[in-house]
Design goal:
The chain is of the alpha/beta class and 146 residues long. Helices cover 41% and strands 19% of the residues. The strands form two sheets. Strands 1-4-5 form a three-stranded parallel beta sheet, with helices on both faces. A two-stranded antiparallel sheet has the order 2-3. It starts with a helix and ends with a strand.
Length: 146
């Protein structure tokens, strides 16, 4: 189901998958900002949607928390991460994210992604958010690849 959601434009699956994610979500302070891991605009045009953004929208609506599609942007059109080693992923993501500090400064931020493999994407994005003034950053993922 996750593969279908990620690669076959199964938007309808987003609501169900977000509900499954909520089963293990802790309570967060009011005003916590939910951010999807962004796709570069080129990749977004190719794929037609950002699965992390779909999950974020449903999570934010259900939890009644704000979300933003603009606070975290992918600065570089990095090659696809699938099949890369941990070191290759880290190198691939260096300087990949730009943050609008006016949206994240002093806030608790939750990064939402569909699948985590090595954690490099979440780590790189988290570091960028913390440098921009986020008070706390946590990652929520639908699944973790083995």
């Amino acid at each position: 189901m996750i593969h279908r959601f990620k690669y076959r434009q199964r938007w309808a699956d987003a609501r169900l998958l977000a509900r499954l994610m909520l089963e293990d979500v802790p309570d967060w302070p009011a005003g916590t900002l939910l951010l999807p891991i962004p796709l570069h605009p080129h990749r977004l045009r190719e794929r037609g949607y950002n699965q992390a953004a779909l999950l974020t929208r449903h999570l934010a609506r259900t939890m009644q928390l704000p979300s933003s599609l603009t606070a975290l942007q992918r600065e570089h059109d990095t090659p696809q991460q699938q099949g890369l080693s941990r070191q290759e992923r880290q190198r691939n993501l260096k300087g990949a994210f730009r943050v609008d500090s006016s949206q994240v400064a002093g806030r608790c931020v939750v990064l939402v992604d569909d699948v985590m493999t090595t954690g490099s994407t979440l780590d790189t994005a988290s570091r960028a958010l913390l440098r921009a003034g986020a008070r706390q950053v946590e990652g929520w993922v639908l699944a973790r690849a083995l």
